[in-house]
Amino acid sequence: MAKIIGQSLPNIPWQDKQPNETAPVWRYTCNPIIGRNGNKRSNSVFNSAVVPFEDGFIGVFRCDSRSITMDIFLGRSKDAINWTIEDDPIEFEGADGEILHKEFRYDPRVCFLEDRYYITWCNGYHGPTIGVAYTFDFKTFTQLENAFLPFNRNGVLFPRKINDMFMMMSRPSDNGHTPFGDIFVSQSPDMEFWGRHRYMMGTIAGNSSGWQTTKIGPGPIPIETDEGWLMIYHGVITTCNGYVYRMGCALLDINEPWKVLYRSNDYILSPIELYECIGDVPNVVFPCAALADADTGRITIYYGCADTVTGIAFTTVDDLLAHIKNPK
Ligand code: BMA
Hints:
The structure is a single chain. This protein has 328 residues and is mainly beta. It has one domain: Tachylectin-2, Chain A, CATH 2.115.10.20. The protein is built from three helices and 21 strands. The strands form five sheets. Strands 14, 15, 16, 17 and 18 form a five-stranded antiparallel beta sheet that branches. The protein has a four-stranded antiparallel beta sheet with strand order 1-21-20-19. A four-stranded antiparallel beta sheet has the order 2-3-4-5, with no helix packed on it. It binds beta-D-mannopyranose (BMA).
């Protein structure tokens, strides 16, 4: 068994794999766990991030409002399944009013790193870019500089410094619905100035892995294992009915994470259930968080379904590694 290097989390949501299951990832039988009405004014709750906190769990949720505006909200849970989400969006403090000025916020990730929780999200600043903030207590939130110039989406931190540098994946994009997209890794000594940008991986052209031919983007915070960083990502194909979002995974070199050791040829989760295929944006599974238990190797993935509701799905570090190492 490969070893997850991280916390013991015996209380993450879990259901065993059914004996007849052939896929590496299987859904919670009571999905979706959060419906459209997650808070007072929500039209939809999806693409959200959760972490263990105190004696339960806390999360940052994307709730699009009934006027179809995008913002991020705090939520709390004892069991990581039943969530109470606040009605007012997170308010940030910070040194520069120019940066605090809010256009839109969506697709948050939350990463515990050294002594605090960092939140990254797609932040409107003359187009989408990567917003960065930190909190110690989920009561006050300090917003830092945007990591990159627009246009960029899917800023995902590594959960520790690597070679004494903070590292973040991202997916440079455009101001629209981006018909392209590869994943890069950037480095920072201080969480403010980001550079040393390295190409990690891109779309796969041709007929060998059609689900990831249009664009790909990083999902949850990568999971450290004794074989490398295990990262889950989304991949997109353009069909005659528009984009279809699926999930894949890859194993990255532990010291130079832009080096890809293995990568999904087959997807690990595809929109198949009704709540993934019907909603505000049909045919989307979009992962933004994962809880991993170092003792058992269990992983619970949080993902947005059809840009409308939130689901969870289960896997293990060994299921994912077997999938990428033995693709056929
Ligand atoms: C992407 C983002 C995601 C969304 C996806 C599918 O560009 O906007 O938030 O889930 O499109 O609509």
